[in-house]
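Exam review. A common question shows you a sequence with its structure tokens and asks you to describe the fold in words. Practice with the pair below. Do the first one on your own.
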Amino acid sequence: MTLLDRFALWFGRMTAWCFAAIILVMVYEVTARYGFNAPTTWAHEASVLLASFGFVFGGAFCMAEGTHMRISYLVDKHAGLARISDALSLTAGAVYLAGLCYAAWRMAEKALWRFSISGAWDPERSGSTLNSPLPAYLKALLFVGCLLFLSLVLQRMILRRKP
């Protein structure tokens, strides 16, 4: 297990706590809304951010842990197909994630590097009552998550070639 694998596993376990935090935020929101008739303006966006954080880094966690779903009927029946199957899946994953990284970078760049006419930094905003810059941050987060996942896939490709 490499340092990158250990980092992805540790980071994945830490981001899993985001889902526990969502439960706390939602309990607070429901209590405030229905118990005190004082709904929050931030609970929905906070839960979206926390869930996004967990989902974006979940792929890298599964890659590092080796728990991605597979249909292994043919590989189980024919041991020689395992190397071919691994090579094809890693290549397809690398191509897909490279494209996703590029697209995520372009989206994040457009969302984050926006400036108003006065020259003030004005990232893309949600348009909700809170009007937070959450969409811009989520796009940047998607890029970082894809980059980590792609790094793990490329690492697997390189380590498989070594004798």
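Now try the second one, then compare your answer with the model answer below.
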Amino acid sequence: MKFLPTLYKKLTFSLTLFALTFSAISCSEDEDAPAGASTVTLEFQNQFEGQTLTLGQEYTNAHGHRVKFNSFRYYISNVKLSRPDGTQYVQPDSYRLIERTDERIRESFDLLEVPAGAYTSLTFSIGVDPTRNHSTDQVGDLDPNHFMAWNWDTGYKFLVAEGQYFNTAEATFRNFIYHVGHDANYRTVTLNLPSGWKLNGQDKTLALTVNAKTLFGGPNVIDLSATGFSTIHGGANAALVADNFQQMFQVKQGQ
């Protein structure tokens, strides 16, 4: 019967076509399916107007003063990544100290087990929220041995910046000391992520530039030689510095 070989060939061709089609669909679904969790490294690139912040090096601030830093430290807390639908990944107990001092440079930390998917923005705060600021539950980097807790008041220093500025009236360098804390000076930042930023199970680094020049001119241009502005330990002028340091951060493009 001649029609049997022909029928066999047709059945073989149909089954092959079906297998190829199913394989293509399966591959497509695999490519679109969410992969495992990722580790995201947040990297804080401390700079002064585009230059890497180098201790002891002279820079010119927004008021025109020559300034140089001995130390630059701040807390990053309550880190969140937002998805297009408004839901969020919240990093638990994310209280991390970023610092550049003679003793240590620590400018990154990891977000662990971040679920796969697309993300549109990064939110974090500078400082320690009121609940933890007055708590003995020292999670993350809240150990007082980091010397970021007040020794005369309750709570933490949110930002420490110390160095010298050139006082033109006296023709000499004078110290500036910024120790900013207290609940009223806790600030939150939300930054848009690059378009199409997503995780598919691979580890990734998200770099932020941090412009220390903004401390002296964010929205508030600060004259270090004016009374009360070269030494700040909380107080009314600390709010002006807090408004400035809220503007220090930008997501580095091209990642």
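Model answer, second protein: The longest strand covers residues 66-82. The two ends are 66 Å apart (CA to CA). Full marks require stating both points clearly.
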